[in-house]
Design brief:
Shape: elongated
Helix content: 40-55%
Strand content: 15-25%
Largest sheet: 5 strands, mixed
Number of helices: 10
CATH class of the largest domain: Alpha Beta
CATH topology of the largest domain: D-Maltodextrin-Binding Protein, domain 2
Number of domains: 2
Number of strands: 13
Structural class: alpha/beta
Radius of gyration: 28 Å
Strand order of the largest sheet: 10-9-11-8-12
CATH architecture of the largest domain: 3-Layer(aba) Sandwich
Length: 273
């Protein structure tokens, strides 16, 4: 009996040693994998080296925002398009356009899919946590569009409880979302929102003033209200957090274009009226 007890204890000790050994080996394996994988997961993108090596810079935009970016004959044109080309020219590389939905642009920038954002991109505190903004180049404000025969919606207060169309994830989206009781309907583009308004499916559209002017002019049956639903805002381009070298290059381009009147000329070139 004593022998059997002793044997059982020896077996338990042996199994314990085996378990400890396996645990140590597993821990060592996890540590090795962590050391191998962490550098890949946290590897910093050297944007300027990447641009030089590929001979191209990738501009991320949403070509649904005339006059800043829109498609014409399969090509993206507009104010931001010409600024983007100037940046590529200064770097001596090819400009590649990555046209995508507006909302995922910051994520595409962070992942390295694009090198900078130019999309009528307003400087906002939440966005400053995700991207590094350049100097500003255009001042804008949100406006309200309604049907031209609408005499009941005269300002922001009248939008409470109404259906408001916006371009998804834009400043207008945020402004509309702050209106009490508003039913915010999100579209991929301003023109889609304007068409739904024209057809009577929504009560109003909130969007940046320059695109709004073009929508009213091109669609007919719509009008702009005098009352503005928010304060003025400013557009800038955006690069990855830490990409100060590219930021400096873009700032130099913007400084020159503002000083020689090119930005103003582009606004006149692509705007109606």
């Amino acid at each position: 009996m004593a022998g059997e007890i002793l044997y059982d204890q020896e077996q338990k000790i042996e199994r314990g040693h085996i378990a400890v050994s396996c645990y140590k080996k597993l821990s060592l394996l996890i540590l090795v994998l962590a050391l191998v994988l962490v550098p890949f997961g946290c590897k910093k993108i050297n944007t300027m080296d990447k641009i030089a090596q590929k001979g191209q810079i990738i501009w991320g935009t949403n070509a649904e925002f005339a006059p800043f970016e829109t498609r014409e004959g399969g090509k993206v044109i507009g104010i931001d398009a010409e600024i983007a080309q100037k940046i590529a020219d200064k770097l001596g590389v090819e400009l590649v356009v990555e046209d995508m939905d507006f909302d995922p642009l910051p994520a595409a920038l962070k992942s390295g899919k694009i090198d900078f954002i130019g999309a009528g991109f307003t400087i906002e505190p939440d966005r400053e946590k995700q991207v590094l903004f350049t100097d500003t180049y255009f001042k804008a404000v949100q406006v309200i569009i309604v049907q031209d025969n609408n005499d009941t919606i005269l300002g922001v207060v009248d939008l409470e409880g109404k259906k408001i169309g916006v371009q998804n994830a834009t400043t207008g989206d945020g402004v509309a979302s702050d209106i009490e009781g508003a039913d915010v309907i999100r579209f991929n583009s301003g023109i889609e929102a304007a068409l739904d308004l024209k057809n009577g499916n929504i009560d109003a559209v909130i969007i940046d003033d320059l695109p709004a002017q073009m929508l009213v002019e091109s669609q007919g049956g719509l009008k702009l209200l005098d009352e503005k639903p928010s304060e003025d805002e400013e557009y800038a381009l955006a690069v990855r957090l830490g990409d100060t070298e590219l930021q400096q290059v873009i700032n130099e381009v913007l400084k020159d274009m503002k000083a020689n009147g090119e930005i103003e000329a582009l606004v006149n070139k692509y705007s109606i009226g």
